[in-house]
Design goal:
This protein has 447 residues and is α/β, with parallel strands linked by helices. It has two domains: 158 residues, Aspartate Aminotransferase, domain 1 (Alpha-Beta Complex); 276 residues, Aspartate Aminotransferase, domain 2 (3-Layer(aba) Sandwich). It has a seven-stranded mixed sheet, sandwiched between helices. β7, α10 and β8 form a beta-alpha-beta unit. The longest helix has 18 residues. It is globular, with a radius of gyration of 22 Å. It starts with a helix and ends with a helix. The protein binds pyridoxal-5'-phosphate.
């Protein structure tokens, strides 16, 4: 392996790797085989040992416009020199309002009020609290139950963990919030589908069954990702999201779209809601909002929801929604967000995603037929390549593939037994070719 020197190259000894408890990482394996990233530019990282590494997942789906965008770096630097921090409770700073206006002019009509937080996980929990409080303020305090989906990912806070459906993320924590889960829309008859699968619209009827079981008077909201990203790129069957929308509307249940991955061009439209033609009542955003440069999340809600809080807030000096973070609408994050939106619009990220998607889809699906590849799913600039699992050793093969790829100059992300490709929108065709070549070699070397 070339990697053991990686920490040394970064000026760190083995002992110095110990104190940092790494998130979502195999700490023991990493610390014995460190893979250090010390710089980035465009679609490439630079490893501590001086290699260029293609970023095939836009970091963690967040840096779609390419790394180290000078527009964002300059905006952040200038903001830090002007106003590094100001309290967001009971006081404002102009960029928060500017960003809310810019953002809500981009989100679908009817999603007009932006509440800021710092991550996708905070967006999930914020949206769930908002939904519960909304019904209570409307005098329907029994509407408290939430419905998520199997294989979903809504981050790691209490609400998001409860509504998420990836068992490895849930099993250590026992019972959290009350939640039911619809099935994932992953059907064998849809294997190797390009774009939205044909089969499975009937899975939406599970929501009717849950309404029949609990009664709509007890259900606050359904939260779903337009497609599940971290759960393995699981796409909605044609018509499925509309059916879910119709059921929610019919029974007065709020629909929350978690667009933390699907937002900001990854689908070839501004948002998944635009790509799939279905508008939720609440939309959660993060990642692409600042192109990953500064942590930030947002929850965008309808005027009806906002107005309900305002109308029931008591005397005007009182707080209508007792919720918020020290760093909600942080001035530096807002500056990064505004600059990222400039890049998004000026550099035509939606167009760039569309221009590359067909090439990407063809390249990824050329892996079909390799042994151990049991499914390939793709939409816009995301694809999931499902590897046959080793019995009793979940994610073993994707881990091995990812380690091989790193040595060959490719950063690969996987979740469970699915390798997920989500390259930057500014990738070149040769980057896609390189990714597929490395994958081909690594998959072919599996036993
Ligand atoms: C759909 C979705 N929701 C929420 C999150 C959590 O975001 P964060 O890691 O910023 O808390 C993620 C992260 O991948 C995500 O994909």
């Amino acid at each position: 392996m070339v990697t053991p020197d990686s920490a040394k190259a970064a000026g760190l000894s083995r002992a110095e790797l110990e104190a940092f408890w790494m998130p979502y990482s195999g700490n023991r394996q990493f610390k014995d085989n460190p893979r250090m990233i010390v710089a980035a530019e465009g679609c490439y990282f630079r490893s501590a040992d001086g290699r260029r590494v293609f970023d095939s997942c836009s970091g963690l789906y967040c840096s779609g416009y390419g790394h180290n965008r000078p527009e964002i770096a300059t905006a952040v630097k200038e903001q830090l020199a002007q106003l590094d921090y100001s309290p967001g409770f009971q006081f404002g700073q102009p960029k928060a309002f500017q960003l809310a206006n810019r953002l809500t002019s981009l989100t679908p009509a009817g999603l007009d009020y932006a509440f800021f937080c710092n991550s996708g996980s905070e967006a999930a929990d914020t949206s769930l609290k908002m939904a519960k409080a909304y019904w209570r303020l409307k005098g329907q305090a029994t509407k408290t139950r939430f419905i998520g989906r199997a294989r979903a990912y809504h981050g790691v806070n209490f609400g998001g963990t409860s509504l998420g459906g990836i068992s490895a993320n849930r099993k250590l924590y026992g019972q959290l919030a009350d939640a039911d889960h619809l099935s994932a829309t992953l059907l064998p008859e849809n294997a190797f589908t390009r774009g939205l699968p044909v089969h499975g619209i009937e899975l939406a009827e599970e929501l009717e069954a849950l309404v029949a079981l609990h009664d709509a008077s007890n259900i606050a909201a359904v939260i779903i990702e337009p497609y599940s990203g971290s759960g393995g790129v699981i796409l909605p069957p044609r018509g499925y999201l509309q059916r879910i929308r119709d059921i929610c509307t019919r029974h007065d249940i709020l629909l929350i779209f978690d667009e933390v991955i699907t937002g900001f061009a990854r689908t070839g439209e501004n948002f998944g809601a635009d790509a799939f033609g279905v508008i939720p009542d609440i939309m959660n955003l993060a990642k692409g909002l600042t192109n990953g440069a500064i942590p930030m999340g947002a929850v965008v809600a309808t005027p009806e929801i906002y107005a309900t809080f305002m109308a029931n807030g008591g005397p005007e000096y009182l707080i209508e929604f007792p919720h918020g973070y020290t760093y909600s609408a942080h001035p530096v994050a807002c500056a990064a967000g505004l600059a990222a939106l400039d890049v998004f619009e000026n550099d035509g990220m939606v167009r760039r995603c569309r221009d590359l998607s067909q090439y990407f889809e063809d390249a990824v699906h050329s892996l079909k037929g390799l042994p151990r590849i049991v499914d390939i799913r793709s939409f816009g600039l995301i694809a999931g390549i499902q590897i046959e699992a080793v019995p009793g050793e979940p994610a073993r093969r994707p881990f091995e593939i990812s380690m091989q790829a790193w040595e060959k100059g490719l950063y690969l992300r996987y979740g469970g037994d699915v390798i997920t490709l989500a390259p930057p929108f500014v990738s070149e065709k040769r980057d896609i070719d390189f990714t597929v070549e490395v994958l081909k070699a690594a998959v072919s070397s599996l036993d």
